[in-house]
Amino acid sequence: MNKPSAVLSVERPLTVEKAKAEERIDTSPESVRLIFSFIACSAFWLVFGTLVGEYLGLKFVWPELDTISWLSFGRLRPVHTNVVFWGFLSQGMLALALYVVPRTSQRELFSYRLGWSSLGLMNLSVVLGVIALMAGINNGAQEYREFIWPIFALFALGLILVAYNLYKTIADRNVKEIYISNWYILAACLWTIILVLVAYLPGYQQDGISQTVIQGYYMHQGVGQWFTPMVLGLTYYFLPKLLNRPIYSYSLGVLAFWTQMVFYTMIGSHHFVFSPIPWWIQTVAIVFSVGMIVPVTAGTGNFLLTMRGKWRSIARSYSLPFILVGVIFYAIVSYQGTLEAFRSLNKVWHFTNFTIAHSHMSLYGFVAFLIWGGVYGLIPRMTGNEPPQFAVGAHFWLALIGVLVYSIPLMVGGTLQGLSWIAGESFIESVTLMQPYWVWRAVGGTMMFISHLIFAYNVWKMRPGNRIETAESTNS
Amino acid sequence: MKLNFHKNHKLLFGVVFWGFVFLSLIIAVFPALWVQQENEPLPASEPITELERKGMKVFINEGCVYCHTQQVRPIAMDENWGRPSAPGDYARINRPSVWRQTPAVLGSARTGPDLTSIGKRQPSAVWHYMHLYNPRSVVKESIMPSYPWLFKIVENPSKDATVVSMPGEYGPSNGKIIATEKAEALVAYLQSLKQVSMDAEASAAQKAKADSIAAQAAKKKIDGATIYANNCASCHQSDGQGVEGVFPPMAGDPVVTAEDPTDHIRIVLYGLQGVPIEGTEYQGIMQPFGEMMSDEEVAAVINHERTSWGNDAPTVTAEDVAKVRNNDELNKIQAEE
Ligand code: HEM
C-alpha cells in the first residue's frame, strides 16, 4: 500500500473524503517519542486484553475450549479487566494528557525522564500482574484490585510520578489561568492515588464485611474518579480544538467538576445494594446516584452544545465521530447507572449479565471512544503521518456496531435472567436462556477485536519516522 | 495569593486533594473501621478449619467468585438461597497473609448459583468431585469450566487416595482419577458453606424482613418440576436417568413406581445412603430434604417423579407427607438405620 502523503490527499473512492490534519504542530521530538510510546503500549494492551476478552466470551458458548489451568475462565477474567484498565485505557489517557497539560500550560513537560519511568513502571506492573493472575495468584479476587500489592505498587509509583510531573508542569505554566482540562486531568491522578492507597492499606479493612465497604468504594471510584474525569478533561481540550471553536460554557465545566467530585465519591456502595453492608451507606449511595444527573447533564450538554451546527465538520473529520459517540455513550451509561441503583430495578439487574453490558458501554463506548478520538486527532498532527482513511473508518464502524451487538443482547438477556429468578424458575433456566445472547456477545466481540487490530495497524502507520525530517525540511 | 481556583494551582489542587481525602474518610475508611470493630461471628458458627481455609484459597485463586455469589439479599427472589446474609456470616473470613487481602466471597455475578448454603443443598462429596472434574457429567447444560488440574490420573491409586469414577465418556481412557489435596480442600470448603441460625436479638430486624419474605413466598405457586430441577436433577438428572453407578435413575425406579408411597416420602424426607437398589450399590449419598421443604413441596416433587419419564404411579398429597413426618415410630426407625 502506498504511504499516503501528509500534504496531498489521495483519491479514495470508497469513503467520504475526510479532511486532513491541516496543521502540523511543533512539538519537541522528545515529547513525540514519549507520547507515541505510551500510545503504542496502550494499543498493544488493547489487542492483548481484548483477545483475552474474546476468548472468555467464547467460553460461554464452548465451555470445553481448553482445560488448561492458566487459561481457565476464573484466572483469565481478571487478566482481561486489569489489562484493559491499567494497560490499554490508563496508558492511552496518559499519552494524551502528557500532550494536553504542557500544551495548555504553554511549556514543555516538566521532566521526560520521569515520563519514561512512569511508562516503564506501569508496563512492568501489568506484565507481572498478568503472569501472577494466570498462575492463580491474586489479591483475594477483589475486582480491579486483583494484582497483589507488591505488583500494584509499581503501577502506583508510576502514577505518583506522572502526577508529580504534571503538577510541576502546571505550577510553572506560562499562562495565568489553569485551563479546565488540567483541573480534570490532575484531579484524576490525585484522586486515584488516594483511592489506591485506601484500597491497599491495611488496618480498617481486615475482616469480613469491612473489606466489602472498601471494595464498594474502590470498585466504583476506579471508574468514576480515574477514567471519567481523565477523559472528560481530555475532551475539554480536544473537542474545541478539533472543532476550532471555544467550549460552549466554561462555567458548566467547573460546575460539573465539583459535583463530580462530591457526588461520585459517595455512590460507590451502589454495587452492593441489598448486601449486608450498613443500610445507610447503601441509601446514601442511591441518593447521590440521582445527584449524578447534575454533572452528567452539565458535561454532556456542554459538549453537545459545543458541537451544535458543526455536524458537517464532524462528518468530515475522522477523529470527531469517535468523540461524538463517546459523549453520547457517556450520557446513556450515566442515566442507565442511576436507574440501576434504584432498589426496584437493582433487583432485576443485579448479578445478571446486564452489568456486563453496562460496564462495556461505559468503558468502551464512552472511555475508549474518547481516547481513540484524541489519538486520531493528535498523532497525525504530531508525526505528520496519516493513517489510511479507509482503515480509520473500518475501525470506527466495527467498534461501534460491535459494541452495540455486544451490549444490547446482554441487556435483553440480563433482564430475562433477572425476571426468571424473580419468577422462581429453576436456576439452570437462567443459564440456558442466555445461550443465544452469549452467541451475540461473541459476534459483537469479534467485530470489536478486529477493529482493535485495525487500530494497531493505524497506530503503526502514524508512527513517527523519517516523515518528520522530510516534513520539516519541506516546511523550512 | 488570590483565592481563585482558576489562577492558584496550590489552592485548586489542595482542595481537590484534601477534599477527596475527607470524603473518602467519611464514606469508606470510617465506616470500614466501624464495621471492623463490630465484627462478631455468629454464636452458632464454628471456626474455619485449616483444610477449609486451604479450600477457600483454591476457591479464590481459581476465580470461582466471578461466577458465584455468597450473598443472600433480603428480597423474595433470593429466598431459595437461604435467609438474608448478615455481617456475622462473613466475620470469620480474614486476611490470609500480608500479601493478599481478605477474600471477596460476596461476589458480583450469578452466572452460577449462589453458594451460601451449598453445603446443605449438596452435601455429597462424590457429586462435587465429579462436578469439578467435569460439570457436564452431572449437569448437561452447565457452562462451568472443568478443573482437571485439581485431579491426577494414576494407574494404581493407593489405598487412602480419593478415587473419583466418572461415567463413560467423561473419564480418561485408562487409569484412575484421584483427587489432589487441593480438590479435597476445595470440596471440604464447599461442604462447610452452611448458614447457621442467627442470634435472636441481633437479628430482629433481619427476621422481620425474612418473615415478610416467607409471607411472599407462601403466595408463590409450588411447582414439582421446578423443585425437582433445583434440588434433585443435579444427581438424578433432568431426564430422570441418574448417573451410572453413582446416582440411581428415577425413571422406572421400584420405590418411585411403588403403589405405596411411604418409602418414597421417607427417602425424600430423611435421605438415603448405602442401600443397594436392584442389586446396584450407588456411590453417592442422598441428603434429607425434610427440613428444607414444606409438606406441599415434598408432595409436589414426589408427584413429579411419579408421573414423569414414563412413570405412572399413584400420586400423594401434602397430608400423606404430613402423616409420615408425624409418625414418630417411622421417624425412630429411620434414626436407627
Ligand atoms: C473484544 C472486545 C471485548 C470482549 C469480547 C470482552 C469480553 C468480556 C467478557 C467475556 C467479560 C466477562 C463477563 C462475565 O464475567 O460474565 C468481560 C468483563 C469485563 N470487560 Fe470486557 N470485553 C471486551 C472489551 C473490553 C474493553 C475494551 C473494556 C474496557 C475498556 C472491557 C472491560 C471489561 C470490564 C470492566 C469487565 C468486568 C465487568 C463487570 O464485572 O461488571 N472489556 N469482558
From TrEMBL, chain A:
Question: Is rRNA-binding among this UniProt entry's keywords?
Answer: no
Which SUPFAM superfamilies does the UniProt entry name for this protein?
A: Cytochrome c oxidase subunit I-like
Q: Name one GO biological process term.
A: electron transport coupled proton transport
**What GO molecular function terms would the record report?**
cytochrome-c oxidase activity; heme binding
Q: Does the keyword Ubl conjugation apply?
A: no
Which cellular component terms (GO) are annotated to the entry?
membrane
Annotated transmembrane regions? 34-56, 83-102, 114-135, 147-167, 179-203, 223-240, 247-267, 279-305, 317-336, 356-378, 390-412, 438-460
One Pfam annotation, family name?
Answer: COX1
In what residue span(s) does the Cytochrome oxidase subunit I profile domain sit?
A: 34-476
Question: Which UniProt keywords are present, listed alphabetically?
Answer: Electron transport, Membrane, Respiratory chain, Transmembrane, Transmembrane helix, Transport
Report what the protein is called: Cytochrome c oxidase cbb3-type subunit 1
TrEMBL record, chain B:
Keyword set for this entry?
A: Heme, Iron, Membrane, Metal-binding, Transmembrane, Transmembrane helix
The protein here is known as Cytochrome c oxidase cbb3-type subunit 2
Which domain of life does this protein belong to? Bacteria
**Family matches, as Pfam families:** Cytochrom_C, FixO
Query: Can you tell me which residues the record assigns to a coiled coil?
Result: none
What GO MF annotations does this protein's record show? electron transfer activity; heme binding; metal ion binding
Q: Where are the transmembrane segments?
A: 12-34
Domain Cytochrome c: start-end pairs:
50-194, 219-309
Name the source organism.
Fodinibius sediminis
